[in-house]
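Below sits my pick:
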Amino acid sequence: MKFVLQYQWEIFITIEVLLFVMLLLFGATRYFFQLKKTSFAFFISFIGLILFEALLALLVYKQTGEISTFQIVIIVFIFYAFTFGIADFRKLDRSMRKKIGEWRGVELLTEKDYVIIERNANPKYIARKYRWTSAIHFIVFIIVQAIFWTIGTNGIDEWAGYIRDLSWIESGSAAQSPYPNDTTYAIGVIWTIVFVVDFIWSWSYTFFPNKPK
């Protein structure tokens, strides 16, 4: 366990690299070499690595007794893998089938795939999709932050004080913030940064749309 605690970030990065390699091997063996059983083994390995990340976070928590940035990062990656990651995997899968099909001189894409590809090339559709996802992210973000602040403060009046004076952000401590403890403080701050970046990125497709392909 000392090894795990000492090299937890290195282990996590190695797992992330292996996850990407498993995806590439899945596509290559399934569509280029037509080895469906082998490709299924790589897919199972991919799922196994994600579960191993969850186990790693649990082991570190049991040893330290506290939730750290390390566990938060793993939770975010796992959440992504089973939500937005699914759509990204399908997009990568279609892209690999298109490229491999061109190399082999065979058609690996279905009519439905072409409809989806054409739809995803439409700037209006992309902008609308990101507006919806940003709206959902905003609602979830506000609800969870409100729960944290409700637990850590004595009411709306105290909320207003923290909103007017944001100097508590620079303190880096939950004691001077509206959050009840260091764990929720870390989650709240990191999530706020992620939310702001995601919100700007999502709405950039509306204000600065790509040219139709």
Remarks:
- The radius of gyration is 22 Å.
- The CA atoms of residues 152 and 180 lie 4 Å apart.
